[in-house]
Amino acid sequence: MRFVTGLYRRFAHLVHEMAKFGTVGAVAYAVQLATTNLLWSALDAPALAGQAAGTVCATLVAFLGNRYWTFGHRARTGLGREYVLFFIMNGIGLLIQLGCLWAAVHGLGLDGPLARNIAGNVIGVGLGSLFRFWSYRTWVFPERRDAPEEPGAQERQGA
User: Fold this and answer.
1) Most buried residue, 36, 68, 72, 148, by CB count within 10 Å?
2) Do 128 and 78 meet the contact criterion of CB atoms below 8 Å apart?
3) 36 and 51 in contact (C-beta within 8 Å)?
4) Which residues, 6+ apart, have CB-to-CB distance to 120 below 8 Å?
5) What is the pLDDT of residues 20-75, one digit of tens each?
6) Judging by beta carbons within 10 Å of its beta carbon (0-12, 13-18, 19+), is residue 118 exposed, middle or buried?
């Protein structure tokens, strides 16, 4: 039990960021699913266009949630800089999603609604989300250089 407690103490900050990122992501994912499927079913949009439009709408929701809640404690490097980097990283995440969807539709010939959703909205979003979390923490919302040391940091350094 001490081992688990020690692990939690060591990674508590990361666990909390991941939980917030997941919550924001769930809301953005709901927006993306609703928009994508509405475009596909109501407007008969092409597979890739519907996926891209849904992802752009979700990206707007995700930016606000991540900037002001998930990574709100991190350094503010300017709204314009963060906005541009956020959308670049989301563009790369979108390419990951579209690649998964393209592979299913054009590579494997799986073009039904279920196949589109699994390829684009489950596998693609999952892989894209892993990339996004890492890139947001690394480049978009970096750690503060002058941040106070977290409790237990010196104990970990000595271990």
Assistant:
1) 36
2) no
3) yes
4) 36, 47, 51, 97, 98, 100, 101, 104
5) 999 999 999 899 999 999 999 999 999 889 988 998 899 899 999 999 999 998 98
6) middle
